[in-house]
Amino acid sequence: DKRARKIISIAMQRVASELTTEATVTTITLPSEDMKGRIIGREGRNIRAFEAATGTNLIVDDTPEAVVLSCFDPIRREMARLTLLKLIGDGRIQPARIEEIHEKSMSEVEREIREGGEWAVLETGITDMHPELVRVIGRLKFRTSYGQNVLKHSVEAAHIAGMIAAELGTDVQLAKRCALLHDIGKAVTHEVEGSHALIGAEIAKRLKEKPEVCHAIEAHHNEVEQRTVEAVLTQTADAISGARPGARRETLETYVKRLERLEAIAMEFPGVDKVYAMQAGREVRVMVKPTEVDDLQAEIIARDIAKKIEEELQYPGQIKIMTIRETRTSAFAK
User: Fold this and answer.
1) pLDDT tens for residues 195-234?
2) Of the N and C termini of the chain, which has fewer Cβ atoms inside 10 Å?
3) Same-domain check for residues 207 and 65
4) Does residue 129 form part of some domain?
């Protein structure tokens, strides 16, 4: 017991980490106050198009020369931030242009995700990893757990696991690999049903990771009994990284989980194309497929979603469900 405490304290002392908390809003500085009018557009058409394309809230208030982007999903918020900055720089703000710029921003964020994964792999000194797995690790850059950035947490856990493994005389590279990959399930949690530990193990198996690594991932929350030293080291490193002072913040995580659940409930209904939880979860915008859902069905879907939310979630106040059915056609005059 004394030796165990000594090993853990050595590992903790050798890892110097920053305080890694994230927010759910981004403030964009404007070149002038006139820009607010152009962002809003005639009768608010630009702001509506922006919110529909990006799935974020664009808040224009009395704050001088600034607007605020609000969204619980950091990937979506980053895409919206890049889109808005490009639109402001370009000066041409109109619905068609908003969609075009948003497409470009999506590919930029995709590149940033890849770079994040490559940084994590280089930082921990891990080689021969499947490119798709590197991309999944990169997605963790835009995920938080109790306010702690999951990519930084994973890299930190890998360093801690490596140091403890070195003290114990076990395989350092394998311990680092297990700890770096332990939270990959969080990159897709709100899209796939199941716990992040089991989802992560499934992803690792599919991408031909070693059985020891897959086992360490699935066992780090005791959902599967730990059978290897690496599994125990992964859980220990995860706990040390998450429990250090300043690493985590409880309230943000519960808020984000509630918004993710809101979107997941609405996505369960047939005919639903996209779902955005807006206004800090007080409004849910549901885009339905116009070919599958008529106007009457759209009304019924809104009522059914509201009923299911009432049954399954606890929330303050009330939540407005808005179904949007949009048909677009285009033709070319030659």
Assistant:
1) 888 889 999 999 888 899 999 999 988 888 888 899 999 9
2) C
3) no
4) yes
pLDDT for res 25: 76
For the chain, give the number of residues: 334
The maximal CA–CA distance of the chain, rounded, in angstroms, is 82
- What was the pLDDT predicted at 20? 43
Q: Provide the whole-model pTM.
A: 0.66
Residue 27 phi, psi dihedral angles, 5° rounding: -100, 130
- Distances 190 to 14, 65, 73, 104, 258 between C-alpha atoms, Å: 34, 35, 10, 24, 11
Last residue of a domain, one of 108, 130, 165: 108
Structurally, how many domains does the chain consist of? 3
Domain at 35, CATH number: 3.30.1370.10
Q: How far apart are CA 53 and CA 324, in angstroms?
A: 13
- The parent domain of residue 66 ranges over 25-108
Exposure of 27 in the CB half-sphere (CA atoms within 13 A): 6
Structure tokens at 129: 């990893």
Look-up of token digits 């549901």? 286
The string of DSSP codes covering 28-76 is EE-S-THHHHHHH-GGGHHHHHHHHHH-SEEE--SSTTEEEEE-S-HHH
- Work out the average pLDDT over 139-167: 86
